[in-house]
Specification:
homodimer, 328 residues, mainly alpha, Farnesyl Diphosphate Synthase, two-stranded antiparallel ribbon, 15 helices
Chain lengths: 328, 328
Amino acid sequence: MVELQTRDVFAAMRTDLQRVEARVEQAAAIDVPLVSSLVLDLVRAGGKRLRPLILLLAGRGYNYDLDALVTAAAGVELLHTASLVHDDTVDRAALRRGKPTLNTILSSGAVILLGDYLFAQSAILAAATGNPRVVAIFASTLADICDGQLQEMFNAHRLDQTREEYERRIYGKTASLFAGAAEMGAIIGGAPEAHVAELRSFGADVGMAFQIVDDVLDLREGAQQLGKPAGNDLRQGTVTLPTMLYSAELSGSPVDAQLLHDVVAGEIDGPDVDRLVGAIRKSGALEQAMAVAADYAERAKSHAEIVADESTRRLLVDIADLALARSS
Amino acid sequence: MVELQTRDVFAAMRTDLQRVEARVEQAAAIDVPLVSSLVLDLVRAGGKRLRPLILLLAGRGYNYDLDALVTAAAGVELLHTASLVHDDTVDRAALRRGKPTLNTILSSGAVILLGDYLFAQSAILAAATGNPRVVAIFASTLADICDGQLQEMFNAHRLDQTREEYERRIYGKTASLFAGAAEMGAIIGGAPEAHVAELRSFGADVGMAFQIVDDVLDLREGAQQLGKPAGNDLRQGTVTLPTMLYSAELSGSPVDAQLLHDVVAGEIDGPDVDRLVGAIRKSGALEQAMAVAADYAERAKSHAEIVADESTRRLLVDIADLALARSS
């Protein structure tokens, strides 16, 4: 069922997404012979383009000004790409979407500058909408993303984190851009203010669901499916929702609690991490976390109800399902 | 004489610059306990605030809308700071303005994210002007800066560079922000289009002079004055104007040519670099390069003539002198 809906939303939006794609590739062109093809590969590898899709759909129920929407959507996708480039350097990740990351090929200095270049191009696209509110959302979203990433970095190796801290982090690093994309789309579409607010909430909730699923997949899947090693977050000392849920139910088992503590603290590595990943999988924490993600997706769908156009509303609901269903 | 003029321009603009300062500090505040004081130190260490000064002065001869000018000026200064943070990471520089750089204190990942955070804050300030043209200039300036830095990186260790390639690089990495600052100030001030264009050229020429002087100082001064080791550019394989001028007159001396080649290629280091720096100093290339910088400063002054207000025009001339006279 979900598979069918998924095919529907991409089929319905294919032509418009292709325009976004062309705009992204055009903006990512760079006059440095050695790296231009690397950057193009990176941009083309893409993902499902969920963020541009949300932006387009948020405008679709109103005045569908496709030129401005495509420009903003390309800006959002490039902002996301730039952020991934820096994030992979920060994490020293070797793989992204199953391919070697730029920082396995280029010096870290070159990767920093390429990320900055992509940020600049995304800002140029945001500015090209000529809409001061869109630009303001774009800039504050970038700040939210950095805040989320900095909170993640400076809260690494700490087990004593609250659910609120976790939510702030994943809102910043992921949901803020989904929220901003939906808000920009609604604003460009000229939606009434109440609709802009509901669509922003739609984006935020889809983003929260998406990131929680991401955190579950990090523990559930092997390298094949995700292009990253399983338990990667734990190896970096990043405590995510499934780990928090697992931790909360450990009070009776000092041995398991010690293993969790030592892995998160970064004191042990290798097969011990695999053992912890196995224990979390068996505990039911992944299913509990998926239920939280499903709640967010349901909330997103209720926000989508404000859209009067039925086909657009149905596509928004598909997106919420898609955030839950990917790679599972 | 230059000293007196210098004091004049800072005295005349002190109150307005203090407002920029306060705005910069407010925007740089960050909710990460371990780094907030580091970021504040970095921002406070500042330099002469030439870029905000140029922005304010470019608006001063027209409708001096101080609120918007201060906002944009703070954005320009933070963009510059963010770019320095990433640049020091790229160069692995240990000192900046005589102080340890962030990347000697924090992990390179943290420094990347802090730079991104400062970029985001600068973009928020640009957006807060509410002026789409200002935002567009801001975004394209960031792209120019990245282009200049990437060209520098990917042309390192090459002696066969043209003067045009050098000029493109220093325009991008330095002069573009001076040009953009002047253009934004003139636009916010509501200057006529012909004045906007002249003031942009003023900023660009001041920036070119400033960077050429920087390139000369890198070869002329010791670590004390500049907070960096002398000959730092050569150690990184970066060929600047003085080195190009020196190279052009070397045809008769194969031994000196070999030394230059080997240092630029990164094949030898240490005392050989000091020997090359000494040879460049003795050759007169620094004086020739300073003459080129002086030409740019003169051209800047001629662009400033379009400003009708005499006191503003005089302050702009002071800025052009200041770009030449600093640290000398």
